[in-house]
Write a structure and sequence with these properties.
By secondary structure, this protein is mainly alpha-helical. The protein has three helices and no strands. The radius of gyration is 24 Å and the shape is elongated.
Length: about 130
């Protein structure tokens, strides 16, 4: 059986350190990925609205422990989902910008991604746990 490729001893790629003229980045793929990530915000916004609608009419939670716990849980999820939405917006924007100009080095893109990791570092979950008395 013969595959359409160079035999193992002949290689076929550019020599180490040489630029390959065949290496190309697809701007459309970067932009499409960015748009896809940014587009996740729509579904997240709908979920956040439904989450808020579910809280309508809860009223004063002072006299009911389960209502107070529900309110605490809602507040923590509202913040978390809001952060996810912001993260999608920033990451999607970074991918789109990277695709449009392709002027950022790999190190620059990694630096920007590292900044997002720090900014949106997940914290310990809150709500739904027994409090110390």
């Amino acid at each position: 059986m013969q595959l359409n490729q160079y035999p193992a001893d002949q290689g076929g790629g550019a020599p180490a350190g040489a630029a390959s003229e065949d290496l190309k980045s697809d701007k459309k793929a970067w932009v499409k990925a960015g748009e896809g990530v940014t587009g996740l915000k729509d579904g997240i916004s709908k979920a956040l609205t439904k989450l808020g609608d579910g809280q309508a009419g809860l009223g004063d939670t002072g006299g009911c422990q389960s209502a107070a716990a529900q309110k605490e849980l809602y507040d923590s999820w509202k913040k978390y989902v809001g952060d996810v939405s912001s993260r999608c917006d920033e990451l999607g924007g970074l991918l789109e910008r990277s695709g449009h100009d392709l002027s950022m080095s790999d190190e620059s893109v990694m630096g920007e991604l590292d900044k997002l990791k720090v900014k949106y570092e997940d914290t310990e979950a809150v709500g739904g746990r027994a409090k110390e008395k």
